[in-house]
Amino acid sequence: MPVLSPQQQAYAQYKNNKVMSASGPELTLMLYDGAIKFLNIADFAIEKNDLGKAHQHIMKTERIIEYLRNTLDMKYSVAQDFENMYSYIYRRLVEANISKDREIIAEVNGHMHAIRDNWVEVMKANHIMVKDA
Asked: Is 133 part of any domain?
């Protein structure tokens, strides 16, 4: 385990507190933001031919999508729409990871941005404060 500087320790504690104090909708937003961040890193890694790093960050995005799929409450009809969307995104991520295809990464990133932006609007419509959005 690497030794963290006092500044790194403070930032790690801040991030932990942010997650621990977040509501369900805020956590979902954080997951969308994380997926977008990891896709951006993967895209840049592919551009720089760092295929190991690209693989690592595509896998992180896949895990986020898996988590989102596993938390769907299928008693609501809209959950099936999310399942279909997440299933498609997951398949495209697998394809992107196999081929290290930046076009697929860009496509998925576009979908994630649209989903995230719509989620922010849902949060606002339901009077859920959106932090850092």
From this structure: no
What digits encode the pLDDT tens for the residues 28-80? 999 999 999 999 999 999 999 999 999 999 999 999 999 999 999 999 999 99
CATH number, position 93: 1.20.120.340
Residue 6 resides in a domain? no
- Tell me the pLDDT tens digit for each residue of 85-115: 999 999 999 999 999 999 999 999 999 999 9
State the Cα–Cα distance between residues 127 and 54, nearest whole angstrom: 37
Region of 5 please: left (phi>0), alpha (psi -120 to 50) or beta.
beta
Whether the CB-CB separation of 39 and 61 falls below 8 Å is answered with yes
Instruction: Identify whether 77 is part of a domain.
Output: yes
Is residue 130 situated within a structural domain? no
